[in-house]
Each structure stands twice: as C-alpha cells, then as structure tokens.
Predict the structure.
Amino acid sequence: MLIYRKSPLMGIGIAILAVVAVLAMRSLGMPLLGSESPFLFFFSALALASWYGGFVPGIIATLLGSISVAFLFLRPVSATGRIEYAHLLHHFVFIATGILVSWLMKRFHSSLERSNRAEAILEDRVQERTLELGIANRKLQSERNKFLGILDLMPESVNIVNPQYEVEYINPAMEREFGKPEGLKCYQYLRGRDAIICSWCRNPEIFNGNTFCNEYTSLKNNMVYDCFEAPITNQNGVLCKLKIMHNITNHKQTEEELSRKNHQLEEMGTELQRLSSDILTAQENERIRIAKELHDDLGQALTLIKLKIGLARRSGD
C-alpha cells in the first residue's frame, strides 16, 4: 500500500530536504551544466514532496525551487535592473506546473484515502460476514449432526444418494439389512453388483424437487419395503436424494394371510349357503311327505271309523 501523509510537518520537512538536495546536486553540476535548464532538477523535488505530502508540501517545494533558481540561475531582474521576461516565463511555467502537480497529487491522496477507507470498511464487513458465516456453518453443522443422529436411531432403513448414484450415507438399520455400500452405486448396493440403473428410478424428478412414495421388493433379501423419497441438500450444497425404507414384509404377509382366510371364509359361506338351501329343501320335502301321509292314512282311518260307527248304529236299531 502507498504510504502518504505521515504527518503535515514531515511532509513539509520532506519538501525542504528535497529542495536542498536538488540544489546541492545542481550546484555540483554547475561547471558542466552552467545555467541551462535548472528547473529540471527541481521538478524531481516537486514531484517527491507532492507525492509524499500532498498539496501544501508540493507548493512549498515549488516556491523554494523557484526562489532558488531565481537567486542562483535565472534571475528575473538582471544586474543592470532590466526585467528578464524569458526568465519570468520559465518561473511562471514552473510555478503553474508545481501548482497543477500538487493539486493532482492532492486529488490522488484524497482518492487513495477514500479507497483505503472503503477497503477498511469492506474488510470489516468481510470479517463480520465471515464471522456470521462461520456461526451459521457451525449451527448448520450442528443441525445436520442432530438430523443424522435422528436418522441413526430410526428403525427404518435410510440412505442418501447423490446425483452420481453414489451412496453418501446409510444408517445402522440399513447396514444391518443390506450391509456396507463399499463404494457401490445405489442400484448395485440394493440389487447386487451386476445390477444396472433401475428402470423405475425417480432420481431426475426428485432432484427437481418432487417427492415420491412407492412399494419396493428387494431381490437381495426378499423383503418388501414402503419407500419415501425426497430431495435433500448435503453439507457441500449438492442436491441429493433421501430414501426412507420401512419394512412391511410382516404386514404384507399378514395381509396375504387375511386375504387367504377371507377367501376360505367366502368359500365356507358359499358351502353353508348351499347346505342351508339343501336343509330347507329337505325340510320342505319332509313336510310335504308328512302332510301327504297324514292326509292319506288319517283319511282312511276316519273313513273306516265312520263305517264302523254306521254299522254299530244299524246293529243297535
């Protein structure tokens, strides 16, 4: 970073020392250079003073340089009292240049100060933001650890898969049922090393924010699972798939057993209906037979009794 304006007095001191040094060097070169172009040396003092101290030291260096040249090299007034307009023009150009350079250096210093202030403010904000991000990351990591802790304790099998079908996480329940991933793709892990990508895979839709529920029968352990799949972001910000597999094998077996029992009950009900119908038919036939027997036998008996009563009456007469 450029160093400037350590203190106002130091800037003025630098201006005076620069003019004295240039004046000494110019005096030493007097035998060779004569009085030609004396301001060229003092431009270096002007530039140094204005660069280091800004506007005021630059003006001081300009005035001291002009005064030094006026006394030693280019006198505005000759020994005879005649005004040297050419010398005055050189002094005017030098002073005007000095004022311009000092003003530009002042603007440069002001811009640099603003830039440094802005940089300091930006650094403070970056530090604050970095601190905030650090706190947020620690909180996020803490929440992620809590989340993974919950997944570890779940009785359901859970895994997290990235877009490259790589298994990033499994919980203990999953490991107990399927073993360790050992670098296998998810379809190889669940179905076998020779398996290819599942034709029913929903990863593209899940990575677009959709969720799915489906039933899955594993050929690896012959278990039936009720699966829930949803998108989740890992600690690196990559969108992955969370899959929760609830083992419903016993439930399915119970359903199948209930279905079988219901079918048996239905068959038994049909048989009972048939037996009930046969019983009713037999009862009706028996009722008809009994009624017929009662009609025929009782009728004959009554007729016989009637005849005997008639004979008895005739015998009494």
